[in-house]
Amino acid sequence: PALLATVYLLFIVALLRKISAMSWVVFVRELNRSVSHKIFIFSVINVFWGMTISGMLVDSWSQLTSGEKESFEEVLKLFVKSIPPQASFFISFFIIKTFSGIPLAMLNAKKVALLYIRRGLFGSGDGNAAHPDKDGELAG
Predict the structure, then answer these.
(1) Half-sphere exposure (CA, 13 Å, Cβ side) for 80?
(2) What tens digit of pLDDT does each residue of 33-89 get?
(3) Which spans are transmembrane here (predicted)?
(4) Where is 90: in which H helix or E strand?
């Protein structure tokens, strides 16, 4: 199942990238941001409904298989009763998943620091950076 979920997510990423590219995105950065946003929304919806339905099935499997809940309305009521406990789990999951990204983003601080050091040493690349003139002295 984990391998299948990984392959599934790879296809979803490719599909969402194609969809975002068809929406007249100009910059690659904008395309990546759009894909990230769509993947996040997809994950939230997918996890919520997956957790709610699977939690309802686990909690009330005996009632569903014994035939106590025969009509669609009774099954629907059972589903509605199972939403609050599953939603509390989902909110906890969502908070942990959201805030766990902050420490991971802090790991990129090394790359950002190196970028500023390189810009300081080698110039900004905009043509206004200090560069040696004909005599070998720094102009600027």
Answers:
(1) 6
(2) 888 888 888 877 877 777 777 777 887 788 778 877 678 888 888 888 877 877 777
(3) 6-27, 39-58, 87-109
(4) helix 72-106
What does R_g of the chain's alpha carbons equal in angstroms? 26
The number of domains in the chain is 1
Q: Which residue range(s) make up the domain with 106?
A: 2-123
Assigned domain for 30 exists: yes
Give, in order, the Cα–Cα distances in Å from 111 to each of 107, 116, 118, 122, 127.
8, 9, 10, 16, 23
Taking the mean position of all CA atoms in its chain, how far away is CA 35? 9
Identity of the residue numbered 95: I
- Whether residue 130 lies inside any domain: the answer is no
The arithmetic mean of pLDDT across residues 30-35, rounded, is 86
The residues, ordered by sequence, that sit 6+ positions from 140 with a Cβ below 8 Å of its Cβ are 128, 129, 130, 131
Contacts of 15 (CB under 8 A, 6+ apart): none
